[in-house]
Amino acid sequence: MKRIWTWTFALLLVASMASAQHPDHGGPGGGPNAGPDNGPEGHAIVGSDGTIYLETVTVDTTNHTSSTKVTAVRPTGTIGWTATVANAHGFELSGTNLITANSTTASDGTVSTTLTALSTNSGAVAWTRTLAGRAGELRPFNGGTYVFVVVPPASSGGTAARSLVAIGNDGSVLWTLSLT
User: Fold this and answer.
1) Radius of gyration of the chain measured on its C-alpha atoms
2) What are φ and ψ of residue 21, in 5° steps?
3) Distance CA 51, CA 80 (A)
4) Which fold has domain 41-178?
5) What's the pLDDT tens digit per position in 84-121?
6) 151 closest CA partner among 116, 180, 115, 114
7) Which backbone phi and psi does 122 adopt, to 5 degrees?
8) Where would I find the beta strands (DSSP E) of the chain?
9) pLDDT tens-digit map of 51-88
C-alpha cells in the first residue's frame, strides 16, 4: 500500500511540474490572457488576409462597466484601425465582420442580447441586432453566424427556451430554430 501512495504522489508531482512548464499555464510570465504587465488582456484573431485583431479590455470598477479596444494590425506591421466598443468582449470573426454579444437584464428580469458587428475593413460598426434572450456561442458559417440563444423562464420552476438563430453577414435574421 505504501508503494502505491509513493507512486501516486510521484506521478502527481511530475504532472504538476509538466503543467507549470506549459506556455499557457496562466501563471507568472504569461498565458493566453496575460494582462497589463504581459501584453493584451483579450485574445487575438487572425484574418485570412493576415491581419491580426487584438483586444484590450478596460474595466471601470466604479461604474461596473467595461470597454474593449480592438486594434487591427495589418501584415505589414502597420495599424489599420482601432475601434472601442462598450461592454463588449470575445469578438468572433465572421466573413468581413468582427462580432460580439452583450447581454443585459432589465429590472423585470427580461434578458436581451445586442450583437455588434465591426467591419474588418474600417473598424466602423457594420450593424447591430438585438435578440430576446442571452446569447451563448457565436459560430461563423459561410454567409453569417449561428447564435445559440437561451431565454430564461418567466417564473421560477419554469423551463428556459433554447434556440439557434442564423444571422446573415448583413445583420438580418435568416431563420430561428427552437431547440427545446
Assistant:
1) 21
2) -85, -15
3) 9
4) Lipocalin (2.40.128)
5) 999 887 899 999 999 999 999 999 889 999 999 999 99
6) 180
7) -125, -20
8) 44-46, 52-60, 65-73, 79-86, 92-94, 97-105, 111-119, 125-132, 134-141, 144-151, 161-168, 173-178
9) 999 999 999 899 888 899 999 999 999 999 999 999 88
